[in-house]
Specification:
Layout (H helix, E strand, L loop, with lengths): L1 H43 L1 H10 L2 E8 L4 E2 L5 E13 L7 H12 L3 H8 L6 E7 L1 H10 L4 E10 L7 H4 L11 H5 L1 H4 L2 E9 L5 E9 L7 E4 L3 H17 L4 E7 L6 E7 L18 H4 L9 H10 L8 E3 L4 E4 L2 E4 L8 E3 H7 L2 H11 L1 H10 L28 H6 L8 H12 L3 E3 L4 E6 L2 E5 L4 E4 L3 H16 L14 E11 L4 E15 L6 E8 L7 H4 L1 H14 L5 H10 L1
Parallel strand pairs: 2-8
Antiparallel strand pairs: 1-6, 2-3, 3-4, 3-5, 6-7, 8-16, 9-10, 9-21, 11-14, 12-13, 15-18, 16-17, 19-20, 20-21
Helix pairs in contact: 3-4, 3-5, 9-19, 11-13, 11-14, 11-17, 12-17
Length: about 575
């Protein structure tokens, strides 16, 4: 019996030891796991946990300051910043949500239900309205609503309203460039980001705030453009007036220095106000001068003439038979744009009188491959290099895809689509002695009031010889003196140019419209020493559609004002100056 009791006692003790060992192992494992977890949290997760902890007591609002100013070439401000305030709410501090929502909605012109939903959220920060007017802020501050707070911001402001809006573009709520120059030079203009941090107590109430400046572009850049405020205004004024007079769909005009490629004016009608761009149709934001392409019509005829002259295949005085107003190519009859029935015409008269059949005869001498090469050399079918968003390359088919009608059609500006900037650059090459210049809209980059980058003219390539240029200038002078461009003439200045009246192509019927046209005039002055190349295009005018009637007078009005503004002497004044000398 005693022996049995002894065995039971030893068995019990062994059980106790086993249990203690098991419990010890469990405690060891638990302790090790706990220590590992603490080490993980304290060492590896330390920064993340601190950030989460601070986030519970800190509100961060990012705002943007110091976006660069945009100037014209004479440092007149076209875009700048103004100080404003934005409204936000800390819902945890709002006492009477219905009353606060009603006051905010009434003062700020917002939906009361949406505001009530915002300020009922379990958050410590909700935007109510960004960049409010002074009157709105003054009313809310006077009301003294609990939980309603204000933060300083800058708002982009365009002091000249619609002036050059399609070139300047506009910015979004966070001052990010969305269109035009604002978008193209976002990296230079963007300014600095200010992080405003607000500390809160345990109940979410604001108790302290401070600012932290962050930016990869601390001092920012300003930009001056090649645009001239006065020439831009003059161009917009006369273009808009003519678009309204002829009840046209739209209008475009460009003014360029032919020797440098600098753009003095770039106008689009209809216009929009970039201060409130959202109130205008989105299609009015588009800069059609670079982004849209058109069949140019007869303003393209100087290109085929340039090819023939430069290849030595024809001279200005050489005559061509113009088939008495009707020519058959394959199964298609091609006539003149007007009712004229021309017989024999010199190249000079073909351009001056704008004979379609004459242009075809010249193109047939040049041949499709050579003609295509010159079209490409003049910059068509490719982007101009102008650093603005959305530029189109136009449309130019390879000669292998031309039909038997293509050579004829392209010679007078159909079956090809060009952008206005391509067209004005090509005419500038004719005017300046034969060099295609890259168009420019940026004049200088400015930092801390000092110019750090200056515009330099860039020659792309020589297109035609100087001799060809001189010959073609004389041909284009006859357009204004005796031909279709008489209404583009200026007292005291010789003008060279070309009218155009292009039928619009209807994609639905796959035919050219007999009622819708693009009316154009392109030219330069003074013809023998050109300072300005000007293109005017008016889309779908009503009443009259001839480029000579609709577009040429706009050229004359712009050129007259711009030449006077630039102090370019007239022929009489030049004679007087020479006599005095």
């Amino acid at each position: 019996m005693a022996k049995q009791n002894k065995q039971n006692t030893e068995t019990f003790r062994d059980g106790i030891k086993s249990r203690l060992k098991f419990v010890s192992i469990l405690l060891f494992v638990f302790g090790a796991a706990l220590i590992s977890r603490l080490a993980f949290l304290q060492i590896i997760q330390h920064d993340t946990l601190v950030a989460k902890s601070e986030k519970q007591y800190l509100s961060t609002v990012k705002t943007h300051f110091g976006r660069g100013v945009i100037y014209d070439r004479n440092l007149n401000e076209l875009a700048r910043n103004v100080e404003v305030e934005s409204v936000y709410v800390n819902p945890s501090e709002v006492q009477d949500r219905k009353s606060v929502a009603r006051t905010l909605a009434t003062t700020l012109g917002l939906n009361r239900g949406q505001i009530y939903k915002k300020i009922s959220a379990k958050k410590h920060f909700v935007w109510i309205k960004r960049k409010c007017s002074l009157a709105e802020v003054a009313k809310l501050k006077k009301a003294g609503l609990a939980g309603v707070r204000f933060v300083a911001e800058q708002k982009r402001f365009y002091p000249k309203r619609e002036l050059a809006a399609s070139v300047l573009g506009f910015v979004g709520m966070d001052n990010q460039g969305l269109a035009g120059i604002e978008h193209a030079y976002q990296a230079k203009l963007k300014g600095v980001t200010v992080r405003q941090v607000t500390e809160r107590d345990a109940r979410g109430r604001s108790i302290q705030s401070h600012e932290d400046l962050q930016s990869s572009n601390p001092s920012g850049y300003d930009i001056s453009l090649t645009l001239d405020e006065v020439i831009q205004f003059t161009t917009e004024y006369h273009l808009k007036k003519q678009v309204e007079r002829f009840k046209a769909d739209s209008g475009m005009a460009v003014v360029m220095n032919p020797h440098t490629g600098e753009i003095y004016a770039m106008a689009n009608v209809p216009q929009f106000n970039p201060n409130r761009y959202g109130a205008f149709p989105s299609k009015s934001w588009k800069n059609n001068i670079i982004a849209s392409s058109y069949e140019p019509g007869s303003i393209f005829k100087p290109i085929v003439a340039a090819a023939a002259l430069d290849k030595g295949l024809a001279r200005p005085q050489d005559i061509f038979f113009c088939e008495n107003g009707m020519m058959k190519i394959g199964k298609v009859n091609i006539g003149e744009a007007s009712d004229h029935k021309f017989g024999w015409l010199s190249m000079r008269d073909i351009i001056a009188k704008s004979s379609n059949i004459g242009a075809i005869k010249i193109a047939q001498q040049v041949g499709k491959n050579s003609f295509y090469d010159y079209i490409r050399k003049f910059g068509f079918g490719q982007k101009s290099g102008l650093p603005l968003p959305g530029e189109s390359a136009g449309q130019l088919k390879s000669p292998k895809n031309w039909t038997e009608l293509s050579l004829a059609s392209i010679s007078f500006g159909h079956e090809i689509a060009v952008t206005p900037i391509q067209m004005v650059s090509a005419m500038a090459a004719i005017a300046n002695g034969g060099n295609l210049m890259e168009p420019h809209v940026k004049h200088a980059l400015i930092k801390d009031g000092q110019i750090v980058e200056q515009f330099e003219p860039k020659k792309i390539r020589r297109v035609i010889s100087e001799k060809t240029s001189r010959q073609l200038v004389e041909v284009l002078k006859s357009v204004v003196k005796t031909g279709t461009g008489k209404k583009a003439g200026l007292d005291g200045y010789d003008v060279a140019g070309k009218t155009g009246t292009a039928q619009k192509y209807n994609t639905e019927t796959r035919s050219y419209s007999k009622t819708e046209f693009v009316s154009s005039f392109i030219g330069f002055a003074p013809a023998d020493s050109p300072r300005l190349v000007i293109l005017v295009m008016i889309d779908n005018p009503k009443g009259s559609h001839w480029g000579s009637v609709v577009a040429a007078p706009v050229f004359r009005n712009i050129a007259k004002k711009a030449l006077r503004y630039l102090n370019v002497p007239s022929s009489k004044e030049r004679v007087f100056i020479l006599d005095r000398a």
